[in-house]
Amino acid sequence: MKKPILKLCLIMAFSGLLYSCSQNEINESDAKAESQKFKVIDVTHHDGKPFSTGVSSTSATGKYVDNPGGGVMMQAFYWDVPSGGNWWNTVSSKVTAWGNAGIGSIWLPPASKAQNGAFSMGYDPTDYFDFGDYNQNGSTETRFGSKAELVSLITAAHNENIKVYADIVINHNSGGQSEANPFTGTNTWTNFTGVASGKFPRNYNDFYKNSYGNNDEGSFGGFPDLCHAAPNVQNWLWLRADGVGKYYKNTMKFDGWRFDYVKGFGPWVVNAWNANVGGFSVGEYWDSNVNTLEWWANNANSSVFDFACYYKMNDAFDGNNLALLNDDMMWKRNPYKAVTFVTNHDTDEIWNKLLAYSYILTHEGYPTIFYRDYEEWLDKNKLNNLIWIHNNKATGTTSILYSDNDEYVARRNGYNGNPGLVVYINNSDVWQERWIQTNWANTQIKDFTGNSTWYPTTQADKWVKIQCPPKGYSIWSINQ
To answer: Tens digit of pLDDT for each residue in 393-450?
Structure first.
């Protein structure tokens, strides 16, 4: 009787195995069918070219060049960096490592002498041509160092083929002398005729209110508000060969501009600057309204920080509703004029920062890394991995493949032979798996973050199942 019993057991085990395999196939089929219900959102519609920052595609030094995904910017400061005049040297010591990591540009704080001298972060400018070489406002050096140290930093960055962007504050001034002002009938702190450099002398005629009007689009903090309609202001800011813009670009060798508080003046000002001076430019128009951001960027002929994206990420990642990432953002309107960011020197609200970086470094626009996130607060190896993925895999137009409260999957559709990628973000507390449609048939893929050890092969219809760790992300592309 033992043999029939053994035979019966084997038959039952085999039948159970067949049932289990069949059931798994049914479950996978159901899971795939469920994913197919999500209507893919084709977000952008263009020829697939990456964001251009003006970095050449070749380098005489063999250093950084723009990669298939475009560039990555480093905000090379934070609010209240250490005083003492050593910041330019600190940044200079890091540019080689940043270049090796794939950073293509650095954004420096306002470099000229401001009212608070050695203690100022530069946003209260007095003398645009004092880079730490004149004894005024209580110091010779700025908070960040001397002119020689700044020049050395810019040279070191250029040796790595890294562009250097100047933070330009042209809405307001501070640190002028008091003078009688016939337009206000009072004394105002608008006498800048005695600046130590002797360049860009200005007085009450160059500030609102004056003969050109009572005000422009916005003043800031009670500081004297520059009047860009005044010929003296235009001449010294962007028209003269020895004026601010052209001196910064041609003599100091800055490659571009971050315009501070552009809500304070009309977009025609940045447009005129760009037309006369050139270089990359991005404006700080602090507004979550994507219509306003697009309006400003178009009229200024400039890139703009994507505050619409910033606030959507904050709500999505910290509010546990990743479906909000389907909403409108500047990079979706015009990826070639959108500079994305997770944190800056003014605002630091997003808690799940690595998820946010995985978003901006796989999506379109020009992503910015914040100094303290990179050097102090987050895992540098993970950020370097995301930078590499951005530069080498984040190519082409964007399609959203799936989204709900805690899952988001998007595809970069590739460009010029580069296959693109699929990014999977999971804001839940458990591993997630999902079927998605790639652009690759019968092809083995892998997670280039290493967060998943799967090496799945896409089906003939380009569908494949991928996974994502809890509170994490995975980024998939062809295994090559």
So the answer is: 999 999 999 999 999 999 999 999 999 999 999 999 999 999 999 999 999 999 999 9
95-96-102 Cα angle (round to 5):
85
pTM of the model: 0.92
Q: Kindly report each contact of residues 22-28 with a partner whose C-beta sits within 8 Å and lies 24 or more positions away, as own/partner.
A: 28/435, 28/465
- Pairing between β-strand 421-426 and β-strand 432-437 as defined by DSSP bridges: unpaired
Stated as kind and residue range, the H or E segment containing 171 is none
CA distance linking residue 145 with residue 83, whole number of Å: 9
- The position carrying tokens 């003269």 is 240
320 Rama class: left (phi>0) / alpha (psi -120 to 50) / beta: left
Structure tokens at 177: 């002398």
pLDDT-wise least confident of 51-65, 314-328, 360-374: 51-65
Phi, psi of 185 (to 5 degrees): 75, 15
What count of other Cβ atoms lies within 10 Å of the Cβ of residue 220?
17
Residue-wise pLDDT for 72-128, tens only, equals: 999 999 999 999 999 999 999 999 999 999 999 999 999 999 999 999 999 999 999
Diameter of the chain by CA atoms? Answer: 118
CB 142 within 8 A of CB 85: yes
Tally Cβ neighbours within 10 Å of residue 158: 16
User: Is the Cβ–Cβ distance between 1 and 8 less than 8 Å?
Assistant: no
Which of 179, 192, 71, 39 lies closest to 125 in space, CA to CA? Answer: 192
Neighbour count for residue 96 (Cβ, 10 Å): 15
What is the pLDDT at residue 25? 61
pLDDT digits (tens, 9 = 90+) for 156-168: 999 999 999 999 9
Tell me the two tokens of residue 387: 């930078």
Cα torsion at 351, 318, 426, 69 (round to 10°)?
-60
Question: Cβ distance 104 to 55 under 8 Å?
Answer: yes
Chain-centroid distance, C-alpha 298:
19
Cis bond upstream, residue 209 (ω within 30) = yes
Beta strands 472-478; 421-426: pairing state: antiparallel
The structure tokens 């899971």 sit at: 31
Local confidence band at 32 (pLDDT 50, 70, 90 cut-offs): confident
H/E element, 474: strand 472-478
